[in-house]
């Protein structure tokens, strides 16, 4: 029984959605930190680490092509490589850009959450024979 359940949750689509939700949640924390520190002198904006972003793309591509991924990366936050222009106080946060990025990230999270819920509804329907 345990192997059957493991197989359901090791499905490439389910794993991709889970990874996308984790990444969006971690990016939300980074963007929120940037917005909270918009007036902090010398603050350098943060985002998902470049290493995570490339590992994330690689894992999604591997899941798409082979249906498996050897390991799924863990989202991490680091000082962003692309800082943009610094103000006189050394702060590199552009509030308008952060707000746009926050809205785009929220859309990505919402989409992944809706797709995950849809997949789980399908599993429930398969298990119970009832739609809810």
Layout of SSEs?
Layout: H1 2-9, H2 12-36, E1 46-48, H3 50-66, E2 77-79, H4 95-128
Antiparallel strand pairs: 1-2
Can you walk through the features of this model?
The chain is mainly α. The chain has one domain. It is 64% helix and 5% strand. The protein has helices at 2-9, 12-36, 50-66, 95-128, and strands at 46-48, 77-79. The protein has a two-stranded antiparallel sheet. α2 runs antiparallel to α3. The longest helix is centred in the C-terminal third of the chain and has 34 residues, at 95-128. The two termini are 24 Å apart. The model has no long low-confidence stretch (mean pLDDT 87).
Strand content of the residues, in percent? under 5%
Helix content range: 55-70%
- The mean pLDDT is 87
Distance between the termini: 24 Å
Largest sheet geometry: 2 strands, antiparallel
CA radius of gyration is 18 Å
**Which parts are unreliable, with pLDDT below 50 for 5 consecutive residues or more?**
none
Strand order of the largest sheet: 1-2
């Amino acid at each position: 029984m345990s192997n059957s359940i493991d197989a359901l949750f090791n499905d490439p689509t389910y794993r991709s959605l889970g990874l996308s939700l984790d990444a969006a949640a971690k990016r939300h924390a980074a963007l929120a930190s940037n917005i909270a520190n918009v007036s902090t002198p010398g603050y350098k904006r943060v985002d998902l680490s470049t290493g995570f972003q490339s590992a994330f793309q690689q894992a999604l591509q591997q899941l798409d092509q082979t249906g498996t991924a050897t390991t799924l990366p863990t989202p991490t936050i680091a000082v962003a490589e692309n800082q943009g222009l610094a103000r006189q106080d050394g702060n590199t946060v552009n509030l308008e850009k952060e707000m746009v990025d926050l809205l785009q990230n929220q859309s990505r999270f919402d989409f992944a959450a809706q797709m995950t819920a849809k997949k789980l509804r399908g599993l429930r329907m398969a298990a119970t024979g009832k739609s809810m």
